[in-house]
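Q: What changes when pyridoxal-5'-phosphate is included in the input?
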Amino acid sequence: MSASEFDPMLLSTIDPRPRRLSFDRVGAGRGGGPPEPSSLGDKVYKFDSYHMSHATHVQALDNLSEFIASVSGARAAYPLVNGTTSGNLAMVLASVQPGQKLIVPRNAHKSVLGGIVMSGAAPVFLQPEISEELRLVFTIRPQQIQKALQEHPDATSVLVTNPTYQGFCLDLAEVKRVVQEADAMLLVDEAHGPHFSFHDGLPMSAMKAGADMAVQSTHKILGACAQSSVLLVGSNRVDDHMLRMAISLIGPSNPSRLFTASLEAALRHITENSLLDQVLEMCEEARRRIDAIPGVRAIGRDIIEKSRSVVDVDLTKLVVDVSGLNVSGYRAARLLHDDYGVSAEMAGATTVTLVVTIGNTREDIDRCVTGLEQMAKRLRGPRVQTSQLLHILALQTPPMGRQVLVPRAAFFAKKIRVPVPESVGKISGESVIPYPPGIPVLVPGEEITPEIVEYLTSVRRTGVEIHGSEDRTIGTLQVVDEREFLHSVGGGWS
Ligand SMILES: Cc1ncc(COP(=O)(O)O)c(C=O)c1O
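A: The predicted holo structure follows.
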């Protein structure tokens, strides 16, 4: 096959329509985000194999690490080419040993559970606050962490997600205080906050709050290539040797030069230009206009009053409440995409989240708000929520099942598939995460209770999206085959 006949499947999925607007992670290929795609042009693949001696490459990576640390207020930094996913894995592996306890929010990203499986840690889960009105997940409170640390004095580390996907921030300074008081380590999944260090009008960054480690997805907001993230080390408590071993265990031995160069370009671009001023101004204008649309409103700092856990909000994330129209957030996001050419980052039961980045322009904002205005005009009418939405809103997450096995033991155990009604009393072999609200009902190793089965049966009726579980229709569950488990692992249940 000649090169000209080569038709990569992935390229054919790129939307050919020229001006579809994206309000999701920016990557490097959109306007505003370095490196300028046109300046790389078809050299992009050549750049990836650009000749450099091994020593020069190692030195270049060391220089890059120093540069990232200096602009991020960190003691040390590591460029990552496997996303924040790999950073979370490394952070957990480097801080928690088999059987040690790690305090985490129940809705932590799946890579955190990945780290728990790999390290053999015993998770202590904290339920995040859920807004009753919007069915949106807020975050966790320092008091919850303090209580968990008192109940589990042997917990060595606490990992928090800050900000959340929607930009909700917990009281990080207070979290740091309670974690330090208990002599534990504070790890922050800051995937959605790589811009916090670069503007005073944004919430407090993990490094500023004194976190021991944090991981950021530079690619989501600051325009590095997809998968390009950074791991930051804030304190001397981190075992550098252990961390380097964990990173090398998880990362490739030949990190993409394109990705690492894009990290440098993105961070130089943000430190040398006041790009975030414009993003914040655009968002302020968008909020004003969205709030003027009947039936629609943009959630802002007002949410702090209504929440017990949120103390700050990243205003570059436009969380639009569409519950005043007769649609769910999912339907609104679909209409915005299909009929008005605007792609949102994510949708929930009542909201659509649009992430405004350095890749967006004032014209983008204008087209996005105009799309919302037209959609609202079309949908407005007496407020009748569909029965499906009412059912979704009525779902109440059941209490967590008892942790019988640590997730690692459940992950490696032999499993069988059983119909959901027959799973009561068995040990889950997989995660089950309904969206909304995006909080796991089960993680591997937990006992399946009658309340969980009842909840899953209701979830099934509503058609809510299921993540984690192999059977997305949630008719069956993977459970641990207890007899096989006893034989193969020698009878240990923890
Ligand atoms: C909170 C959180 N952490 C980690 C990740 C993983 O990030 P990455 O895509 O950089 O691996 C995500 C992905 O969306 C996320 O939402």
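Observations recorded in class: The pocket of pyridoxal-5'-phosphate is lined by residues 83-85, 109, 111, 161, 165, 189, 191, 217, 229 (CB under 6 Å).
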